[in-house]
Write a structure and sequence with these properties.
Layout lengths: L5 E3 L2 E3 L3 H7 L3 H17 L4 E4 L5 E7 L5 H4 L10 H4 L3 E7 L2 E6 L9 H9 L8 E6 L2 E7 L4
Antiparallel strand pairs: 1-2, 3-4, 4-6, 5-6, 5-7, 7-8
């Protein structure tokens, strides 16, 4: 679900009825503006790559101390950030507003990272999801969910 917010310092607040009435923004405009903001937020994030003992990338982590990661992954150019390192399709999980994990879609062992994802999901006041999405040129597609072993 996408929703507009009013940024007030460190707080991200749902607009009041007064603000809705004043600006009369329709859903298409919210989506257009949201894409612009998501792209700007994504541009501030730098992936941290985790490699195995053979130096093969296991996953990338996007993290921020601001609650922007969950929406930054919706930026139109999100996949471009990982195309050269993880491939044309990736697996994405966004356990909370501040973290996202991106795995290669091919030859991935993303299931092995249940403890990390579960901790990120439960260790916050703002959990998002433990669902796994495949992100490719066609868009987003739910492909799994992390469950307790």
């Amino acid at each position: 679900m996408l929703a507009p917010v009013v940024v007030d310092g460190d707080d991200y607040l749902f607009p009041s009825r007064k603000i809705w009435d004043r600006f009369q923004v329709d859903p298409a405009e919210i989506q257009r503006r949201g894409a612009i903001v998501a792209a700007a937020d994504l541009a501030t994030l730098k992936p941290r790559y985790e490699r195995n003992s053979k130096q093969v990338i296991e996953y990338a982590e996007l993290a921020s101390d601001r609650p922007i990661v969950a929406s930054a992954v919706l930026a139109p150019k999100f996949l471009d950030l990982f195309r050269d390192t993880l491939g044309d399709k990736v697996l994405l999980v966004v356990p909370n507003r501040f973290h996202a994990y991106v795995f290669p879609a091919l030859a991935s062992n993303y299931q092995d990272y249940y403890p990390m994802v579960n901790e990120a999901y439960h260790d916050t006041a703002w959990p998002i999801s433990v669902e796994v999405f495949e992100v490719g040129p066609e868009g987003f597609r739910a492909v799994g969910v992390y469950r307790s072993p």
